[in-house]
Amino acid sequence: MNLPRTTAAVGRGSIRTAAELAGRAPSLHNTQPWRLHWTGRTLQLWADRTRQLPGTDPEGRGLLLSCGAALHHLRAALAALDVGTLVDRFPDPTEPDHVATLHLHPDAADPALAELAGAISARHTDRRRFTEHPITEADVEALRLAAAGEGALLVTLSAPHAHQELLAAMAEANRLAAHDPEIAAETELWSGAFAGDDGVPPDAVPRDPAGVIGGVRYSPGTLAQPPDPSDGASLLLLVTNADDARSRLRAGEALSSALLRATTRGLACAPLTQVLEYPQTRRAVAKRVLADPAVHPQVVLRIGWPRSGAAALVPTPRRPVDDYLDEVPDPGEPEPGPSSVP
């Protein structure tokens, strides 16, 4: 959709609704490392470095993936409010934490984005074992298209050796994390050690993590597992052709798009990044799993069908919108009115 950069004003109620839904985006350890600045005519998305994890995420890779997911959630939420967006990514080379500016255009929304907004509140990271019923090629193709629309490629692991190589790389990443005191402390801090409006609470982590394909990086929580010890999850890889800041941001947008599309199809998902947080295991995935050292794996997507009768997941906590939204409206802003996402 080609939109002019001249931006019309959007009401405060719509901005707050969209910002609140953007805050539902997935993020590393549910750190929610973003800030929004509203000028009254544009929305700026900034990375919040105070929420970066120096041990787990020293490069800020996970931070940018998280910001990308929030950016896509924000675009979808605005589209559902009939607000189109023209996005400038990294608009100021002197401000690398200013990851995007959204120019807003009422009555010019992308209907495909608007459709995904309804899945934002229904999407949850599901770390439980999945049913053995396989996902269909139609499901995979729908997720591929969702990711491709945001500039990334979703790759299936068709060869048995590729699946085994990915599991081996995951096991090596788990071993490295277990022997790193700083990473262990960060994981503990952000996974139930303190109750709050961020982090991963115990009721989002299985009580019995045994058999979960790809593993669970957190200590056992309180979430009940189905009695069947098998796990029928499939593993997909989200990859990009480059590994610069823009590519990582776009990978986050693609992740959001794929997760929301999966939610509309009734699929359960969990994004996994630990195996790609270490240079050596990331290289191993590119070389041994993808057989192409020139591509850059960004996220592993664990996907499948939830078990019949599995309890509904409790939404993980999120920060209040006023915690990350700065509102400095232009003098010409229209009076705010009620708004809601259909």
From TrEMBL:
Q: What's the domain of life for this entry? A: Bacteria
Q: Which GO terms describe its molecular function?
A: oxidoreductase activity
Checking InterPro entries in the record gives: Nitroreductase-like, Nitroreductase/BluB
Q: Where do the segments described as Disordered lie? A: 312-342
Signal peptide as annotated in the record: none
Give the Acidic residues compositional bias ranges: 323-333
What is the official name of this protein in its record?
A: Nitroreductase family protein
In which organism is this protein found? Pseudonocardia thermophila
